Amino acid sequence: MLWLIPSEVSISGVLLPPLFIAAVLGTSLAALTAVLLNRYRLSRFFFYPPIVFLALAVIYTGFIGTYMIPA
Hints:
The chain is 59% helix and 8% strand. The protein is mostly helical and 71 residues long. The chain has one domain. It has a two-stranded antiparallel ribbon. Helix 1 packs across helix 2. The protein is elongated and about 45 Å long. 10% of the residues are buried.
C-alpha cells in the first residue's frame, strides 16, 4: 500500500505538494460557494461573510486533503 501515498504532483514538470493542490481546490470551491450564497441572497443571514468564506475554505481543504488527495 506504499504506492497510494503521493509525495508530489507533477504539473508541466513543476512538482507541487499535495496539500497545495488541496488548498487551491478548497479555496476555489469556497469561492464558488460564496458566489452562490451571494446570488441567492443567503449570505445576509451571516454576521460576517468573510469569516464564513474562510471557514468554508478550511473545511473544503480538509475534506479534499483527507479523502480525495490523501497525504
